[in-house]
Design goal:
- The protein has 126 residues and is mostly helical.
- The protein contains 4 helices and 2 strands, in the order E-E-H-H-H-H.
- The protein is 48% helix and 3% strand.
- Helix 1 packs antiparallel against helix 4 and helix 3 packs antiparallel against helix 4.
Length: 126
């Protein structure tokens, strides 16, 4: 938001997907959110009302579902094995992306699979 010399306020409209709530998680919250990518329930167990925790628990659950589907592809001979192997490499990259996002205190969605909101992290439960 800016104000020009005529006292007119100009507001920049940002598309919904790019809007990020301004959260300032402390180091403990960042660490718990990052560990949530190993055990997705951890952030929810610690504090369900924390939007930062719920966001990363949701991203972790999306990653878990993705990896389950990729693993299921391995029952298909040859093509499934190749797709499963490539999918797991991509899954490890997604995992590292999510952990980095959590540990730096950001709320970046995991590309491709992180667009789904399975755990509602936008509602106020306080």
């Amino acid at each position: 938001m800016t104000t020009n010399s005529d006292n007119v306020i100009e507001v920049e409209i940002i598309p919904g997907d790019q809007q990020k709530p301004q959260l300032n998680p402390n180091q403990q919250q960042k660490t718990i959110a990052a560990l949530g990518y190993v055990f997705f329930l951890l952030p929810i167990i610690v504090d369900f009302n924390n939007k930062f925790y719920r966001f990363h628990a949701n991203q972790s659950l999306c990653l878990l579902i993705y990896l389950a589907i990729i693993t299921g592809l391995s029952i298909i001979p040859a093509v499934g094995w190749l797709m499963s192997a490539l999918g797991w490499v991509l899954g490890v990259l997604f995992f590292l992306f999510g952990v980095t996002s959590a540990y730096t205190g950001n709320q970046w969605r995991i590309p491709i699979i992180g667009i789904y909101d399975i755990i509602d992290f936008n509602s106020d439960t306080n």
